[in-house]
């Protein structure tokens, strides 16, 4: 249990998309120093492998791996699961609560990595994927953030360096705090879409699912660009396809391509030879794929597990 120091523990590192080897070594250094055993399940191919591996685990470190009722039922000893990253919709928090398992994330640890990728996509799009034609500069343009957590603030910091104007809406952060952090507060989600760039930094919830729709996207000015490093399900796919078809000036820069292959292909077809300019899809969830973010997220997850067992620390625990 939490706060019971000095006991032997097994920590399962379950990553369908493995950490870099150097990051794994650093995770193991943290767990070994506490006297824990690190068990690795990397690049696994089936749910059955995960269910078997979790059976003797006291703790789990995951990335985008799904922790659902089946996983929790198979994990009779599990006391804590840490998502190495900010988003946590892949963790069934209600099921965790029902099993008495503490769930945590590692907010802010991959913020700079995601922010740099946002600007990489913005520059690639603004310069027409370097095809030899004239593009435009980002200086004096505006960017609006839906959600103003650690990642959004890291993007804002870079935007300031580029001479851009920042706006933000976050229902959980008071307007005066947003202003203190250097952005101009916006009163509503709709207000964000008056600006050329809108960057999404919200979790997937019942409220946000498919909330970015045609009505909002059509409000954007000429050259309007949506940037999505949050979750694909936040955007209404059919509406995005229609907007890409009917507005030749509109751009969508996305690190979380739709899971639905038909929707993804339809978006590509809508922009034709402008793919890579008006529409950018990464290989999916590449935002945190830097050596530094791997290290930061992995070490933070391991350290939180040790703090939980040895000191009873629950600072980053998540509620259903």
Automatic annotation (TrEMBL):
Residues 129-262 form the D-isomer specific 2-hydroxyacid dehydrogenase NAD-binding domain. GO terms for molecular function: NAD binding; oxidoreductase activity, acting on the CH-OH group of donors, NAD or NADP as acceptor. Residues 42-315 form the D-isomer specific 2-hydroxyacid dehydrogenase catalytic domain. InterPro entries: D-isomer_2_OHA_DH_cat_dom, D-isomer_DH_NAD-bd, NAD(P)-bd_dom_sf. Keywords: Oxidoreductase. It holds the Pfam family 2-Hacid_dh_C. Belongs to the D-isomer specific 2-hydroxyacid dehydrogenase family. This is Phosphoglycerate dehydrogenase.
């Amino acid at each position: 249990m939490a706060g019971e120091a000095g006991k032997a523990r097994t920590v399962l590192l379950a990553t369908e998309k493995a950490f870099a080897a150097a990051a794994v070594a650093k995770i193991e250094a943290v767990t070994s120093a506490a006297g824990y055993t690190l068990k690795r399940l990397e690049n696994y191919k089936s749910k059955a492998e995960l269910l078997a591996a979790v059976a003797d685990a006291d703790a789990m470190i995951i990335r985008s791996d799904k922790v659902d009722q089946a996983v929790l039922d198979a994990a009779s000893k599990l006391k804590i699961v840490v998502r190495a990253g900010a988003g946590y919709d892949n963790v069934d928090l209600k099921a965790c609560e029902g099993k008495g398992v503490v769930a945590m994330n590692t907010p802010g640890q991959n913020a700079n990595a995601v922010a740099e990728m946002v600007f990489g996509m913005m520059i690639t799009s603004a310069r027409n994927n370097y095809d030899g034609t004239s593009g435009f500069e980002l200086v004096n343009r505006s960017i609006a953030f839906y959600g103003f957590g650690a990642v959004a603030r890291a993007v804002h910091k870079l935007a300031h360096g580029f001479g851009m104007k920042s706006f933000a809406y976050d229902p959980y952060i008071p307007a005066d705090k947003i202003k203190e952090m250097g952005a101009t507060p916006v009163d509503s989600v709709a207000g964000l879409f008056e600006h050329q760039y809108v960057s999404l930094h919200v979790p997937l919830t019942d409220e946000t699912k498919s909330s970015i729709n045609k009505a909002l996207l059509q409000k954007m000015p000429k050259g309007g660009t949506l940037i999505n490093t949050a979750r694909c399900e936040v955007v209404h796919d059919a509406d995005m396809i229609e907007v890409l078809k009917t507005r030749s000036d509109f751009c969508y820069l996305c690190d979380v391509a739709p899971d639905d292959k038909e929707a993804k292909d339809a978006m590509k077809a809508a922009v034709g030879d402008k793919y890579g300019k008006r529409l950018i899809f990464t290989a999916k969830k590449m935002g945190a794929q830097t050596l530094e973010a791997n290290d930061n997220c992995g070490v933070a997850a391991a350290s939180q597990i040790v703090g939980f067992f040895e000191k009873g620390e629950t600072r980053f625990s998540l509620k259903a």
